[in-house]
């Protein structure tokens, strides 16, 4: 990967024709929500700019982000996206291994100081000196700190790298933290999801390459283009929510009719992602469309919600109580206690008042 | 010890000015409607025309949201108005001691002990007594702000880059949206518990002090009683 030609040259070498190339540019422009002229800008960028060197690190994770990414279904699929950038190091996808691979990473870093993108998948364990995730004899913490130092920007792929995901869930034995807790002096694009949608990942890379800057981010560092709306607001079952027609159990009539899954614990109203518009597997479907409530996998702390029992309940239980008590049960009990207290107090008031009055009448005599 | 039999209520005192009374009843209406719609939104128990219903003809959740948000706005506007009136209203329109002042607690325990039948209280307060004051401070003054912040932050989730998107800090402070929903609901139940106690004590004062506590919330006048 010494020669860094443009993306288009690279594609031509691989036998991709111009028609397919332009189709890809158009789809990318559309999915990024850019204007009509943008596909030409993207095409121009991909024709003229050198491929972007990327070091893709895998830390404490399950690799589902890469699995998702390699399944991007746009006109020019897998290998094209992978070649749009100059992916110089990626444990999952590269053939090299051992010292040879680590040497490549070091070389890329030194040759492209301040110019490469560091893509990180997975959380970073910090307990006991970070020994719970080691690559080539070094801890993930070390590797991240070193490679982030000279990176132009960092892309945090998936919920692990963005908010810690399951590794950081209670009780978090390895002290796993997301990238943004460790690196604070570099621009970071957070692309949460477990995994993120393939087209979202492709879109983020295309944006960075085309405009040579990071996409517009929201307050949590997520690209607004893909994380600007809740799943709920573009849900195909939304009409049933507004109507008040809810699935009550997975085998009832409402479930067969495709009613709203809110009462089955759907986290669509709390979750920002593109599942309900871009959908998965090339726009085929997404969890709610398939009849399962959204679990909110792109939201911080989704494993710990409701003490880790949130997937199928919508109302949280009250934390800190040993027995699981739903917030409504808790609240109604508190109100019940208030009513009981009031009743007792009223009784006592009546008794004391009687005795006071008795005393007074005795005094009067 | 007051002579309860021969209580002479000579003087009428204008305690609750009209704006305070309007605030009170608007607040009461808002709380009732917000609680009913809020309960439904979090846990929609109604099953409209099960099986045969059409999404096009039902709008239960939609109306619940509409009422909840409309009265949320009213609740907040009403609160801000009341805050303003604390500055320009009569002496009963504001607290003279705050929970972080020593003087507050001295009187507080005096009244608390009388509520617990441990001490006979010498005077009936014309405005709020310190125990009532603490409850209003916690449930109404701070509680309303808490409900408004969490409520409007959740409303802002619809359009995170819009006006209420500026309340995103709520999620950074109180935890993810799921948690904020729970806290909003917990506080709502807390307010219901407050309402129960409030109604009881209003009745009790009306019966025991015989100074027109209940009707004062309509007329504004209380009786100042002398032995």
Automatic annotation (TrEMBL), chain A:
GO CC annotation terms, alphabetical: [Ni-Fe] hydrogenase complex; ferredoxin hydrogenase complex; plasma membrane
User: This protein is called what?
Assistant: Hydrogenase small subunit
**Positions of [4Fe-4S] cluster 1 binding:** 62, 65, 160, 194
Q: How does it assemble?
A: Heterodimer of a large and a small subunit.
The UniProt annotation places [4Fe-4S] cluster 2 binding at 232, 235, 260, 266
Transmembrane regions listed in the UniProt entry:
21-43
InterPro entries referenced in this protein's UniProt entry, alphabetically: Cytochrome-c3_hydrogenase_C, NADH_UbQ_OxRdtase-like_20kDa, NiFe-Hase_small_C_sf, NiFe_Hase_small_N_sf, NiFe_hydrogenase_ssu, TAT_signal, TAT_signal_bac_arc
UniProtKB/TrEMBL annotation, chain B:
| GO MF term (any one) | electron transfer activity
**The keyword Coiled coil belongs to this UniProt entry's keyword annotation:** no
A GO biological-process term: respiratory electron transport chain
Keyword Cytoplasm (UniProt): no
Q: Which InterPro entries match?
A: Cyt_b561_bac/Ni-Hgenase (IPR011577), Di-haem_cyt_TM (IPR016174), Hydrogenase_cytochrome (IPR051542), Ni-dep_Hydgase_cyt-B (IPR000516)
What topology in the membrane does the UniProt record assign? Multi-pass membrane protein
* Annotated protein name in UniProt: Ni/Fe-hydrogenase, b-type cytochrome subunit
Which species?
Heliobacterium mobile (Heliobacillus mobilis)
GN (gene name): cybH
């Amino acid at each position: 990967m010494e020669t860094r030609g443009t993306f288009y040259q690279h594609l031509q070498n691989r036998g991709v024709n111009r028609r397919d190339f332009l189709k890809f540019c158009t789809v990318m422009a559309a999915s990024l929500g850019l204007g009509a002229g943008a596909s030409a800008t993207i095409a121009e960028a991909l024709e003229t700019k050198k491929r972007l060197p990327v070091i893709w690190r895998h830390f404490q994770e399950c690799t589902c982000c890469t699995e998702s990414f390699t399944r991007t279904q746009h006109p020019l699929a897998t290998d094209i996206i992978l070649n749009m950038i100059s992916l110089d190091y990626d444990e999952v996808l590269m053939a090299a291994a051992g010292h040879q691979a680590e040497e490549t990473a070091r070389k890329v870093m030194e040759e492209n100081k301040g110019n490469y993108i560091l893509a990180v998948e997975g959380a970073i364990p910090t307990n006991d000196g970070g020994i719970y995730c080691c690559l080539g004899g070094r801890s993930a913490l070390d590797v991240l700190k070193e490679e982030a130092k000279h990176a132009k920007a960092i892309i945090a792929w998936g919920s692990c790298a963005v908010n810690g995901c399951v590794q950081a869930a209670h009780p978090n034995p390895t002290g796993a933290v997301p990238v943004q807790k460790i690196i604070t002096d570099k621009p970071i694009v957070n692309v949460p999801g477990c995994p993120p949608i393939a087209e979202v990942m492709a879109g983020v890379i295309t944006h960075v390459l085309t405009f040579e800057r990071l996409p517009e981010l929201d307050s949590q560092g997520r690209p607004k283009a893909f994380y600007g709306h809740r799943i709920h607001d573009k849900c195909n079952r939304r009409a049933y929510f507004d109507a008040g027609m809810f699935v009550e159990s997975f085998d009832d009539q409402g479930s067969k009719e495709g009613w709203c899954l809110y009462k089955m614990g759907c986290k669509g109203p709390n979750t920002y992602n593109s599942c309900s518009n871009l959908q998965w597997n090339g726009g085929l479907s997404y969890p709610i469309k398939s009849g399962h409530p959204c679990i909110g996998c792109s939201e911080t702390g989704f494993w710990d919600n409701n003490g880790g029992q949130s997937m199928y309940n919508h109302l949280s239980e009250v934390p800190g109580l040993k027995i699981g008590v739903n917030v409504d049960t808790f609240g109604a009990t508190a109100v019940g206690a208030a009513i009981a207290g009031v009743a007792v107090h009223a009784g006592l008031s009546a008794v004391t008042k009687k005795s006071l009055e008795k005393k007074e009448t005795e005094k009067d005599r | 010890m007051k002579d309860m039999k021969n209580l002479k209520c000579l003087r009428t005192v204008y305690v609750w000015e009209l704006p305070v009374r309007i605030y009170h009843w608007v607040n009461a209406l808002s709380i009732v409607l917000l609680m009913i719609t809020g309960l439904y939104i979090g846990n929609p128990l109604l099953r409209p025309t099960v099986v045969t219903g059409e999404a096009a003809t039902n709008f239960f959740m939609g109306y619940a949201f509409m009422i909840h948000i409309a009265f949320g706005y009213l609740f907040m506007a009403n609160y801000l108005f009341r805050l303003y009136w604390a500055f320009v209203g009569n002496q009963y329109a504001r607290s003279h001691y705050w929970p972080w002042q020593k003087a507050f607690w001295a009187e507080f325990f005096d009244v608390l002990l009388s509520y617990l039948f441990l001490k006979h209280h010498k005077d009936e307060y014309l405005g709020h007594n310190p125990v009532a004051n603490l409850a209003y401070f916690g449930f109404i003054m701070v509680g309303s702000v808490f409900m408004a912040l969490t409520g409007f932050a959740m409303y802002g989730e619809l359009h995170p880059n819009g006006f209420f998107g500026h309340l995103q800090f709520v999620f950074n402070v109180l935890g993810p949206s799921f948690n904020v929903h729970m806290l909003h609901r917990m506080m709502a139940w807390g307010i219901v518990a407050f309402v129960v106690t409030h109604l009881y004590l209003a009745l009790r004062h009306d019966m025991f002090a015989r100074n027109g506590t209940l009707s004062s919330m309509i007329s504004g006048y209380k009786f100042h009683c002398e032995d």
